[in-house]
From TrEMBL:
FAD binds at residues 240, 265-266, 279-283, 296-303, 317. Keywords: FAD, Flavoprotein. SUPFAM superfamilies: Adenine nucleotide alpha hydrolases-like, DHS-like NAD/FAD-binding domain. Coiled coil: none annotated. It comes from Kyrpidia tusciae (strain DSM 2912 / NBRC 15312 / T2) (Bacillus tusciae). PANTHER family: ELECTRON TRANSFER FLAVOPROTEIN ALPHA (PTHR43153), ELECTRON TRANSFER FLAVOPROTEIN SUBUNIT ALPHA, MITOCHONDRIAL (PTHR43153:SF1). GO terms for biological process: fatty acid beta-oxidation using acyl-CoA dehydrogenase. Pfam families: ETF, ETF_alpha. Belongs to the ETF alpha-subunit/FixB family. The lineage of its organism: Bacteria, Bacillati, Bacillota, Bacilli, Bacillales. InterPro entries: DHS-like_NAD/FAD-binding_dom (IPR029035), ETF_a/b_N (IPR014730), ETF_a/FixB (IPR001308), ETF_alpha_N (IPR033947), ETF_asu_C (IPR014731), Rossmann-like_a/b/a_fold (IPR014729). This is Electron transfer flavoprotein alpha subunit. Residues 29-217 form the Electron transfer flavoprotein alpha/beta-subunit N-terminal domain. Binds 1 FAD per dimer. The keyword Flavoprotein applies.
Amino acid sequence: MAEKAPKKRKPMIGLQPEGDVDWSTYRGVLVVVEQRGGRAKPVSWQLLGQASRLAAKLEAPVMALVMGSNVSHLAQEAIYRGADRVYLCDSPELENYRTRPYSRVCLHVIRTYKPEIVLMGATYTGRDLAGAIATHLPTGLTADSTQLEVDDERLLLASRPAFSEKMLATILCKQFKPQMATARAGVFEALPRDESRTGEIIPVPPQIKPEDIAVEVLEFLEATGKVNLEDADVIVAGGRGLGGPAGFRLLEELAAELGGVVGASRAAVDLGWISHDHQVGQTGTTVRPKLYFAIGISGAVQHVVGMQNSTYIVAINKDPQAPIFKIANYGIVGDLFHIVPAITETLRRRKA
Ligand code: FAD
């Protein structure tokens, strides 16, 4: 009796690209650099740092895709930040982000240059763009990753919190390429900027068709009142120890002197003392500022995971046993209502 040929594993219905695809031709890790007005989002450089680590394991190149208008300086910057090869699409039509024109360029670059991994920031723009292109390719996408590794079979292990952040799920995309993930800002470390690095810049023509321009952007208005923790160099964060919303006024004054913004623990947010966009931690924002003040915050693990990568951590707490002191570079034991105004006043006097 003739031996039965092994069954070919079929991907999910409707998602299979036409014909046999040789996935082994896909090589390299591509980071889509997000910018607004010619300024890159820090998450893009953080992802280039992680892409370099992954690419070193894969022995593959690090690629970056820069799209926008008057953004050629970002292509060079991407090389200083770890890219070996940069695809640059510089066109007035790409001045403002719009899903279809940006997707068109992304799809062209991915189909032409075939990276095995594509990474974007889990920002509003990154989430929109990644979802749009993943459905067109078609391939899998892990959103909002907090860990990115590769295994011996070149598979991307993208981990993200799941089930109300109680578990960490590791998601693999075994059947398609590229393997795509968006990742949270502040989780990965950017490489030190190195102006001696060299790389190749490959111009990409805009692939935009008239039907892609379905939306005209008339004006960009920055949302007011929302705090931008991700990009802040200094964060002055407060917790339940502040005793009420009035305590946050003290933090605002200190933050103003330091040119920083105000963060908060979940306890303070849940008590309604400050809005959720200020929350740092597992279910808030992951931050990586140069200076982080933890004031009246005990240092619960769910808070610490969101700020432990700050360059310097200063903790102010009246309890010398508070766990926050274990990760603080500088600890001040005492009553925050005396210490915080004293620091603010000292800074004011120095400036005067
Ligand atoms: P507390 O733990 O009550 O600490 C208050 C601190 O203030 C104490 O250490 C106290 O000694 C000090 N203090 C009091 N008065 C003074 C004073 N006058 N001067 C100086 N110090 C003073 N938490 C987050 O922060 N972010 C998250 O994203 C987050 N996600 C979570 C997700 C899940 C699934 C779960 C279960 C929990 C999460 N938490 C999160 C909650 C976390 O476990 C803690 O409950 C929370 O971080 C505690 O906030 P806190 O430190 O402000 O309050």
